[in-house]
Amino acid sequence: MSKIPHSYAFLDLSDYGRPVARIIAVRLKDTTITPLHVTFLFIVSGLLAIGCILKGYYLAATFFLILKSTLDAADGELARVKQTPSYTGRYSDSIADIVLNFMIFIVLGHITDTSIIWTMLAFFGMQLQGTLYNYYYVILRNRHNGDTTSRIFETGKPIAMAGERQRDVDLLFGCYKVLYGGFDRIIYYLDRSASVKGRLPSWLMTAVSTFGLGFQLLVISIMLVVGWANAIIPFFIFFSVFIFLFIGIRKSL
C-alpha cells in the first residue's frame, strides 16, 4: 500500500528501499511480528553501520545503512498491510532516526578529525533538509487522502489509535517535540504558506526527495566507499543552501 494515491505519486529518490520493504511487509503480514519489531531491527542495523564506520569497514557500513533504510520503510508498510497504524510506531520511528543520525555524524566527525562545531552544523543541516522534505510530503499526503499518521503540525498530543495506550503516545510525542520541534518551527517559518496554498508538483517533490533520509544515507555510503569521508560533513553543510532554493521555487509556483 502507498502513502499517497497513485495519481499523485512522484519519483522519490530517497525511497529506493520501498519495493523490498513491501515484500517484507507482505511476508510478515500473517505473522506475530509487529511494525515495532521491524523498527527495532532497523535500529540494530543502524547501530551496526555506525560500528562499521568507526572501524573503517565502509562496505559493511553501506550494507547496513541501506538495510536500515529498507527496514525503515518496511515498518510503515507492515502497519499498512496489517491495518494497524499507530502514533506509537510513527514517533518511535522518528525518534530512532534522529538519534541514529546524531550518532552517525559524531562518528564521522571522529574519524575525520572534524571539529564538533562543524560536525553539529552538518547534522543540523541534514535534519533541516529532512524536515523540509517531510513537511512537503505530509502536506501532499493530507491533501490527497494519503497516510495520515504524520500530521502537518505536531502541536497537541494526538488521541491514541486502537491497540495503543495513550500514555505511550503522550510520552513519545513529548520526546518527538523536544527532538524535532525546533526544526519544524524553522521550516514552518520559512514556508508557512505551503500548507494552505501553492502547488507541490511531482518534479519539485522529486528534487526535494534528495533531502529524504534514504537518499542522505545513500550519499554517506557512496562517499565512504569511494574514499571521500572527509567531504561528507562539508557536503551536508553546503547542500543545506538548497533548502532556500527549493522553498523559493515552491513559492514562485
From TrEMBL:
One Pfam family matching this protein: CDP-OH_P_transf
Keyword Membrane listed: yes
Residues that span the membrane, as ranges: 40-67, 88-109, 115-136, 202-225, 231-249
Keywords: Membrane, Transferase, Transmembrane, Transmembrane helix
Molecular function in Gene Ontology: transferase activity
Domain of life according to the entry: Bacteria
Recorded family membership: Belongs to the CDP-alcohol phosphatidyltransferase class-I family.
The protein's name in its UniProt record: CDP-alcohol phosphatidyltransferase family protein
